[in-house]
Amino acid sequence: MTLYAAKGVKKLYGEPCGECVSHTGDEAGTNQCPVCGSVVACASVDLDVREGEVLGIVGESGSGKSSLAEILALDADATAGAVTYANHDGNLLETDYETRRRLRDHDVGMVHQHVRDGLNLEFTGGGNVAEKLLSAGWRNYEEIRERVFELFERTEIPTERVDDPTTTYSGGMQRRVQIARALANNPDVIVLDEPTTGLDVSVQAQVLDTFRRVQREKGVATIVVSHDLGVIRLLADRTLVMRHGRVVEGGLTDRIMEDPHHEYTQKLINSVI
Ligand SMILES: Nc1ncnc2c1ncn2[C@@H]1O[C@H](COP(=O)(O)OP(=O)(O)OP(=O)(O)O)[C@@H](O)[C@H]1O
């Protein structure tokens, strides 16, 4: 059953002239409207993710992945379109500020590409996770502390570092704190934006392994966005390929990797073989 979906999601930057979508895209070879200069980050994106499933979105830099991820995580507005969630009526993009905040606190977690967007570096690592619990209504100090320790253990962050400032954590640990934060209130859906950016290769693998284990244990539906086919191959059951703000191909990840249909996907795969 579909848990979370996007329908006709459109995101334009600039002052659109009304013809931007028809002047851009795969055939035009650009996402920038030649008439008015607006950028079509997402043209009309449809996707769905089922309970426990991992959906990958892959594409080169500028293809619209982060814009889409932020909209799906209810962190940014779309120009048009709908995001739906099986446990909530209507279009989530049309909900009021409070409802959106509640959904972000309880139902939809996000791991941002850049640490500064996902964490308050002036807080301790534990404080960053506790903040998420507090905003979801947790009030008892002992219970919060216990939950933070549990999340640190689950995401393999040394618990003796819980009260250290987040600035003193390694890049891999900071990413783990973001994952712990995103998981804090047992969301149904997590959006991961470029989960390995800025990490050493060996650390990348460890962080992805941790995420994959936790994701499977909890069965949390995940949308993972990356330019890195290795990340997508490791995590995603199904994959969508984006280019110039459009989904140009979609299917089971194994099929996409072994038998890519679209010329662009073929190039993307050949470039890493
Ligand atoms: N705030 C903004 N104002 C104007 N244009 C923007 C803005 N944010 C993104 N864009 C443009 O929208 C397009 C899609 O950007 P987006 O960051 O969503 O792509 P991406 O696939 O995530 O790329 P990357 O991996 O480099 O982050 C790009 O052409 C980008 O320059």
UniProtKB/TrEMBL annotation:
Q: By its UniProt entry, which PANTHER family does this protein fall under?
A: PHOSPHONATES UTILIZATION ATP-BINDING PROTEIN PHNK-RELATED (PTHR42764)
- What terms describe the molecular function in GO for this protein? ATP binding; ATP hydrolysis activity
Lineage per the UniProt record: Archaea, Methanobacteriati, Methanobacteriota, Stenosarchaea group, Halobacteria
Task: Keywords in alphabetical order, please.
Answer: ATP-binding, Nucleotide-binding, Plasmid
Q: Name one GO biological process term.
A: organic phosphonate catabolic process
Q: What PROSITE patterns would the database entry show?
A: ABC_TRANSPORTER_1, ABC_TRANSPORTER_2
InterPro entries in the cross-refs:
AAA+_ATPase, ABC_transporter-like_ATP-bd, ABC_transporter-like_CS, P-loop_NTPase, PhnK
Stored Gene3D superfamilies: P-loop containing nucleotide triphosphate hydrolases
Q: What is this protein called?
A: ATP-binding cassette domain-containing protein
> Where does the ABC transporter domain lie?
22-269
Q: Which domain of life is it from?
A: Archaea
